[in-house]
Design goal:
This protein is an alpha+beta fold. 25% of the residues lie in helices and 35% in strands. The chain contains two helices and six strands. The strands form two sheets. A four-stranded antiparallel β-sheet has the order 2-5-1-6, with helices on one face. A two-stranded antiparallel ribbon has the order 3-4. It starts with a strand and ends in a 5-residue tail after the last strand.
Length: 116
């Protein structure tokens, strides 16, 4: 079954670019990604640009509205995702716990809906 691991973190509280902590975080992500690729678990995954680059689109009636920023005010922002092929939810949760941002943010795990 495919699961999406949706990664959230507070951009103000995570390691900042150019710091040793960010270097370590990136090394941890590269090691995790390499491991799940080698095990054949990873289907896809990408980091996202900072939340300041987001644009939200809403259609109300026949009018399209765009606003800068994310769709909702939150303390944590969507930072990226992985799509994993796992035998069950327990396996997906075990992988999600190894995603480096889980140590200071959160990782939401959701099964991907399959239409027959």
């Amino acid at each position: 079954m495919k699961y999406m691991c949706i990664i959230y973190g507070d951009e103000a509280k995570q390691p900042q670019p150019g710091t040793p902590e960010m270097g370590q975080l990136m090394e941890d992500y590269m090691a995790f990604t390499k491991d799940i690729q080698e095990k054949g678990v990873m289907i896809a995954g990408d980091p996202l640009q900072p939340v300041a680059t987001a644009t939200t689109v809403r259609v109300r009636g026949s009018k399209t509205e765009t606003t800068d920023g994310p769709f909702a005010e939150t303390k944590e922002q969507l930072g990226g995702y992985y799509i994993l092929e796992c035998k069950d939810l327990d396996e997906a949760l075990a992988y999600a716990a190894r995603i480096p941002t889980a140590a200071f943010g959160s990782v939401e795990v959701r099964p991907i809906m399959v239409f027959d």
